[in-house]
Amino acid sequence: MKKFINQLDDVLVESLSGFAKAHADLVSLSLAPHFLSRKEAARNKVVLISGGGSGHETLHAGYIGYGMLDAACPGHAFTSPTPDQMLAAAEAIATDKGVLFIVKNYAGDVMNFEMAAEMLSVENATVYTSDDCAVINSTYTEGRRGVAGTVIVEKCVGSLAETGASLAQCQALGDKVNQHTSSIGVALTSCTVPAAGRPTFVIGEDEIEMGVGIHGEPGRRRARMQEADAIVKDCVAAILADWQQKKLSLPDKHETLLLINGFGATPLMELYLLYHSAAKQLQQQGIRITRSLVGNYTTALDMAGASISLCLLDDEIKQHWDSPVHTAALRWGC
Amino acid sequence: MKKFINQLDDVLVESLSGFAKAHADLVSLSLAPHFLSRKEAARNKVVLISGGGSGHETLHAGYIGYGMLDAACPGHAFTSPTPDQMLAAAEAIATDKGVLFIVKNYAGDVMNFEMAAEMLSVENATVYTSDDCAVINSTYTEGRRGVAGTVIVEKCVGSLAETGASLAQCQALGDKVNQHTSSIGVALTSCTVPAAGRPTFVIGEDEIEMGVGIHGEPGRRRARMQEADAIVKDCVAAILADWQQKKLSLPDKHETLLLINGFGATPLMELYLLYHSAAKQLQQQGIRITRSLVGNYTTALDMAGASISLCLLDDEIKQHWDSPVHTAALRWGC
B133-137, long-range: CB within 8 Å, 24+ apart, which pairs? Predict the structure, then answer.
């Protein structure tokens, strides 16, 4: 394992310290316990707190700031944060309007966020993201996994919260965006967790993992390496089948957001090639793409691979996607 | 080699098509010959055109837009664009104020941009970037290489050009920013050019290449893998020695921009850890860091590694770094 680290025990704190220093205009770092929050705490709005294992950057700390999250609680690489982190973050920044947790549906995260929610005296609710349509139940989940679609949920709910909307309204929008979004990923290589020191899984020179999770957990099947168009074809079919199962209706003038997300070690050149392929194939199936995002937004450390997410926009979701945002990883209109 | 591609011959066009489609609000793509330019051509300003081999994304196409480039000419992966591309781009968008080419100092790029400049009937000038202080002369260069500091040059000159400044003023600022910026990179792994199909160079499990170029060309030395702090120490020493050699004077209240640039396959977690280490060590040496950028801004396809760039800001450079920019890869104030 070759990584830019010092002592294993210090990886998280040193990385968070770098993030906090590089984005000192946006965030503050608390170290006991670890959480990052907006430099200036927001008032009179529902407070949005997310978090999860590290190694998925720019998720979640990259989304702290105006129009998105109020705080993020990072665990060690691929390890859930502990309840005291969420509790401390919530107690530090809660408002009278309540706290909304946004949690990717992974068993460890769900358990620890639930414990924090129970201990928290402030009114709170939770949105669980489960956009990954690759598998139901998985190595670390009951039900579907929450993956890159979480970024879209955080963006839209973050926008709504800034308007002074209620906790119930924020939760409802989060659930809707999650329901409107389907994702599926494919791995070309494994990732390596620093503390493990070796690749998470073994994969052959001519193999890919279709439907991989963002920690390298198995997906639908091990397949032979194929051309990009063939891989995308499988992904698009999975997403559209999921939309059918969810009974999402597509009006003639529907609009969608297409997110091509890199897992960390895939060059942008390839991500844009995937975008080209996915956009072409979706359009052939009658899907209108009117918003796009391409880059490393929900990664799996140094995994080569990518995921495709498609979100059906309605007027409300579109408005909140387009609204101003100022975070380390997403910024427009500010 | 496992990559998200279809036919080798189609990689560039498919990737550019994806980029142009995903950023259709910002750029237009011309295919014969290949160049990307602003959706709406600017008027009454010096036109800025850059380019180079593909595989360094988000350089250069990611920097087309208000406050930065007017056009970018992409070659195949790690291959210079040909003069007809620069000539076509310049002829398509030139204004009376002239054309400024921004060229990384690599022999192929220099030759082809020079040929285009000679053929172009419009007044033009060229800024050559050479921020890499690792080596003088290299596999593909006479003199120093132009690397991630090019982003800072393009940002600042792009800002000045929007004010209606003259060709000579834009060229002078570009030369100054280049002179004020030193960079050095380190590779943990090789990259793989699609057309080659195998790693560009061989590197042992316990080795790193200190001072690597952005195509994997050799740097100062092959070293043993070390802790991040030790690697950064070497890089910081190289940069500060270069500043001394350049006779850059540091007033008490000086300010600097610290750029930690990923080469493509290094997780953000590690880039922020490097930022933490570099900022700490620079501060110990009396350097004041007041601007920061961390991410994949000048990559080397799927190479694991990173570079450190430090730019000495004066009032003029700072003003043009801070000014509004709206491109695919850098956006603020718009």
Answer: B133/B182, B133/B183, B133/B184, B133/B238, B133/B239, B133/B241, B133/B242, B134/B184, B134/B185, B134/B210, B134/B211, B134/B212, B134/B213, B134/B219, B134/B220, B134/B238, B135/B211, B135/B218, B135/B219, B135/B220
Number of domain units in chain A: 2
Whether residue B277 and residue A6 make contact (CB cut-off 8 A), yes or no, is yes
Contact A19 B231 (CB under 8 A): no
- Candidates B14, B62, B273; nearest CB to A276: B14
Residue closest to B216 by CA, chosen among B153, B152, B271, B140: B140
CATH of the domain at B66: 3.40.50.10440
Catalytic residue status for A180: no
**What gap in Å lies between CA B249 and CA B242, rounded to an integer?**
12
For residues B8-37, one letter each, b for 16 or more C-beta atoms within 10 angstroms of the residue's C-beta and e for the rest, the string is: eebbbebbbbbbbbbbeebbbbbeeebbbb
Is A334 a member of any domain?
no
| CA distance to partner chain A, nearest, from residue B28 (Å) | 15
Chain A residue whose CA is closest to B303: A265
**Count of pairs with CB atoms under 8 A, one residue in A, one in B:** 183
Q: Count the residues in chain B.
A: 334
Q: Please report the ipTM that was assigned to this predicted complex.
A: 0.98
Answer whether B264 sits within 8 Å of A264, measured CB to CB: no
Residues in B closer than 8 angstroms to A277, CB to CB, are 6, 14, 18
Contact across the interface for B17 and A276, Cβ inside 8 Å: yes
**Integer angstrom CA distances of residue B121 from A289, B94, B116:** 41, 10, 10
Residues B175 and B200 in one domain: no
B195 and B93 inside one domain: no
Query: Is residue B163 one of the residues assigned to a domain?
Result: yes
**Does residue B223 lie in a domain region?**
yes
Judge whether A82 and A75 are in contact, CB under 8 Å.
yes
CATH code for position A307: 3.30.1180.20
- Which pTM value belongs to this model? 0.98
Q: Report if residue B23 sits inside a domain.
A: yes
pLDDT per residue of chain A (334 residues) written in tens, 0 to 9: 999 999 999 999 999 999 999 999 999 999 999 999 999 999 999 999 999 999 999 999 999 999 999 999 999 999 999 999 999 999 999 999 999 999 999 999 999 999 999 999 999 999 999 999 999 988 888 899 999 999 999 999 999 999 999 999 999 999 999 999 999 999 999 999 999 999 999 999 999 999 999 999 999 999 999 999 999 999 999 999 999 999 999 999 999 999 999 999 999 999 999 999 999 999 999 999 999 999 999 999 999 999 999 999 999 999 999 999 999 999 999 8
- Owning domain of residue B102: 10-179
Question: What would the 3-class secondary structure string for B267-329 be?
Answer: CHHHHHHHHHHHHHHHHHCCCCEEEEEEECCCCCCCECEEEEEEEEECHHHHHHHHCCEECCC
Catalytic sites of B, residue numbers? 56, 215
From A96's Cα to the closest Cα of chain B, the distance in A is 32
Same domain, A116 and A48: yes
Q: Tell if the CB–CB gap between B296 and A296 is shorter than 8 Å.
A: yes
The SS3 assignment for A310 reads strand
